[in-house]
Each structure stands twice: as structure tokens, then as C-alpha cells.
Amino acid sequence: MSNYKTETKCIQSGYEPGNGEARVLPIYQSTTFRYTSSEQMGRLFDLEESGYFYTRLQNPTNDAVAAKICDLEGGVAAMLTSSGQAANFYAIMNIVEAGDHIVCASALYGGTYNLYAHTIKKMGVEATFVDPECTQEELDAAFQENTKAVFGETIANPALVVLDLEKFANAAHAHGVPFIVDNTFATPINCRPFEWGADIVTHSTTKYMDGHAACVGGAIVDSGNFDWEVHKEKFPGLTTPDETYHGIVYTEKFGKGAYITKATAQLMRDLGSIQSPQNAFLLNIGLETLHLRVPRHCENAVKVAEYLKNHEKVAWVRCPSLPGDKYYDLAQKYMPNGTCGVITFGLKGGRDAAVEMMDRLKMVAIVTHVADARSCVLHPASHTHRQMNDKELVEAGVQPDLIRFSVGIENIEDIIADVEQALR
Ligand SMILES: *Cc1c(COP(=O)(O)O)cnc(C)c1O
Asked: Which residues carry this modification: N6-(pyridoxal phosphate)lysine (predicted)?
């Protein structure tokens, strides 16, 4: 980890050119790498030496960008994935086997919920979902003999629940398992979950990190703090010989790099969800301005939330940075400088008024995305959750009238003027 401040890390971390080399991180647009000795290539395949041989496993552009994200989060090792979904899949699959179990906070991104509730279940891994506001006792009760990890989102998409990171970290550690946090919405600008006891952080870099809605991508970062050896019997994949690499033991050979090395050497090798170097290059350009964009997103979001709160046609507004919000205190504790640019609200006219208002927006666009420079809206009841009736929507924690508003970094007066004319 470098000693630079966050703003400097956004720009300088990850890539340091040598004399006469490209100042800007080059795109290593190459599937493969040349060696003059066949023996050296053999050593790379045995993980005896580190180096590049095939982009599915490692690529210098991707590694530089992963190193920057690692530095921003304060971790020891990181990797990029093709999407946030791949990151959350690998983060769990790297430490579970059929017959294992995980504990998840129930307020999750829909894709992640499907992944953990249904897809990994078909692979023999069960998840128990707990209310993020459960008591310590209720949380403890969710653990089983075969529990291998605890998972949650810093700020849940789209429920905007702020997770009590310390409560979940303590419970995970009391049961000898790591705490994995999806830090997509907060970004390391507003929250670094490792400082609150998280062991592994994941990202959908598709959102604020890229920031321009140009590339789908993901990342996994390891804090290096979880001691797999102390809980050897729970994590045989990391602490016993890997026969596919001549019997190396990841924790013995790679120490604090064990988790990311295993995820690269086994999961990337076998499942192949790599990020393209071209996308990593664009992600890196996004990261260079992350520290400027995130505070502006947050500032604009609070102003839109305040405007909506005072509007006669608005029934309710959710923004964890707004005093009076249910999660205001937790947000102040974990993210005193701001939460994210996404807010949600409902209109007194309900579902029909929501649809009409959205159709009347001129600049703010209706898109299936959040967390990029452009303001956008989505009505889950008509879009992502449209197969559900109103009763099912409420059970899933999505009110039928809920509008998700991802506030961009346009001039705030223009954003509010558009909302104002649409509401009128
Ligand atoms: C979007 C999102 C994901 C999924 O990421 P993709 O890059 O779309 O695969 C995961 N978690 C959160 C919190 C997200 O917002």
C-alpha cells in the first residue's frame, strides 16, 4: 500500500513507468507473451515464478488497474473480473464447496440475490439471508457448522440500506469466517470497509469507478487480514495441496496473497471471466477522477433529495445522507463525507404518477443503469421487477411507487429544473 492520500492514489497508484516508457498506462492488447526459454515458461505454469503468459490468467494493463483499486481500498492483493457479478461469484466460490453455507444481509442488488439464492444453490451452496437490522443474537443464529463466509453491501442497491459493518464483521470473526463486502455504491472514496473489519471487498466497477457507463467490469480486493491457517479445517482449498499445481499449498506459498492467487490460478483459469485490457484502460481513466466525481454525485443527490422532500406531490424520499433518514446515523458513522448519488422516492399519485413523471423527464433519462455521470431514473415495478404484482413487490422490499434516481454530475439547477417540470 502506498502512503499517498486517496486523491493521489486515484491518479498515481498501480502504474509507474520506467525511463523512456509510456507515461500513460499502455493497453497490452495481447493474448500472449513471449519467452526465450521454454524452461522459464514451465516455471510460470507451475506458479514457481510470477510473470505473464496468457491474458486469461494475467495481463499487465489489468494488473496495474487492480493494483490501483487495491491501494484505494488499502488491501494487499486484487484482481479484475469481467463484471461485478463475476466478482461476487468468485469471491464466494473461492472459499466454498458443495455442502457449504454462507450468511448474507438480505438487502442486496437483485443480481447478487439471484446468484446467491438460486444459482450457487444448484452448485450445492446454501445461503441464509438475514435482516440487516437483526440483533447480534439473530445474526449468530444464522450460522451453521458449514458456514464459510458472511456477505453484505455497504449501501444496498436499490434499498439504500447502510450496513452496520462492525456488527457483521464481529459476527463473521466470532464464527471463524471472513466478511465480504460489496463496496460498489460507497466506493473507497466514501468508505473503506477494511477499516471496519471487512476481510474482502468486491466491486462492480461498472458503476462509479468507471463512472461514464462505458464498460462492465468488476474487482475483488483482499485485505490480507483473515488468517486462513487459523481456521484450516474450514478452508481446505487454501490450506491443503492443490493437485492441479503439483501440490502447492496457497497459504504456505503465497502468504497474504493466497486468496487472490487461488482465485486467479483456479477460478480464472477454469471459468475465465476476465476483464478485457481495453476495458481496464478505460476503467483506469475513470478511476483518475473518482475522487472528484463521487463528492459531486453525493452533493447533487442531497440537493435533489431535499428538493423532493419539500415538494407537495412527493410522498417519501430516501437518501441516507439526509437528516431524518432511517440510516442517517449509520451513514454518519461509516460514511461521514457522503454516501452515494443514488436516491429513491415515491409520489403521492403512486405507481401511475411515477410512470407519468418519468416519461415527462427531458434530460434525466430512463435507463437500466446507476452511478454514472449522467442523471438517470428507473422504476423497478415497471422494469427490473415487472413480473411481480404489487403484493410481491412489497415483500421483495420494492414499493410499487419507488423511483430509483441516480443523480449525475450535471449542474444541479438543470437537474432540479427537469424534475420540477416533470412533476408539474
Ligand atoms: C451493478 C451491481 C452489481 C453487478 O455488477 P455488474 O457489473 O452489472 O455485473 C453488483 N453489486 C452491486 C451493488 C451493483 O450495483
From this structure: 207
C-alpha closest to that of 366 among 337, 417, 405: 405
Q: How far is the CA of 372 from the centre of ligand 1 (A)?
A: 13
Give, in degrees to the nearest 5, the angle at Cα 155 between 100 and 13.
90
- Fold match flag (15-278 vs 293-423): no
| Domain made up of 293-423: CATH architecture | Alpha-Beta Complex (3.90)
pLDDT at residue 342, rounded to an integer: 98
Burial of 230 (C-beta count, 10 Å sphere; 0-12/13-18/19+): exposed
Per residue in 318-375, pLDDT tens? 999 999 999 999 999 999 999 999 999 999 999 999 999 999 999 999 999 999 999 9
Asked whether 157 lines ligand 1 (CB < 6 A), one says: yes
**Best mutation site among 85, 163, 205, 273 for ligand 1, i.e. most ligand atoms within 8 A of its Cβ?**
85
Question: What proportion of the chain, given as a percentage, has pLDDT over 70?
Answer: 99
Ligand 1 closest atom vs CA 88: 10
User: How buried is residue 395: exposed, middle or buried, by Cβ count under 10 Å (0-12/13-18/19+)?
Assistant: exposed
Asked whether the bond before 380 is cis by omega within 30 degrees of 0, the reply is no
The protein residue with its alpha carbon nearest to ligand 1, atom 4, reads: 84
Instruction: Note the pTM of the prediction, 2 decimals.
Output: 0.97
279 lines ligand 1 (CB under 6 A): no
| Residue 72 phi, psi (nearest 5) | -60, -40
Helices 290-309 and 277-288, packing angle to 10 deg? 70
Q: List, in sequence order, every beta strand (DSSP E) within 216-271.
A: 218-222
Choose one of 82, 106, 112 to mutate for the ligand 1 pocket test, by most ligand atoms within 8 angstroms of C-beta. 112
Parse the chain into domains and list their residue ranges: 15-278, 293-423
* The pLDDT value given to residue 396: 66
- pLDDT of 1 reads 66
